[in-house]
Amino acid sequence: MARKRNAETSVEETVAQENEAVETPIEKVEAEVVREGVVTAGMLNVRSGPSMDNNPISTLYKGTKVMYTVENEEWVKLENGGFCKREFIK
After folding, report:
1. Domain 35-88 has CATH 3.40.50.1980
2. Cβ distance 61 to 13 under 8 Å?
3. Which of helix, strand or coil describes residue 21?
4. Which end of the chain is more exposed for a tag (fewer CB within 10 A), N or C?
């Protein structure tokens, strides 16, 4: 965008005006996909965080239906906030 510039306009003012016109990029956020699964292990510990170092907070049994999101390659996050190993949810 062309601007008329007179002797009274400083370089700093011109740069500030041009920066105002620049749109800031919008951060791309991917939505978590909620999935439904079934516990395949006879007994599955639900942990307070995505690690075997976290204490179990409850237990699920084979055939229990769960809603979850994928935390990473190894863990899922259950709708109640607990975590369990992904390999035992199908």
Report:
1. no
2. no
3. helix
4. N
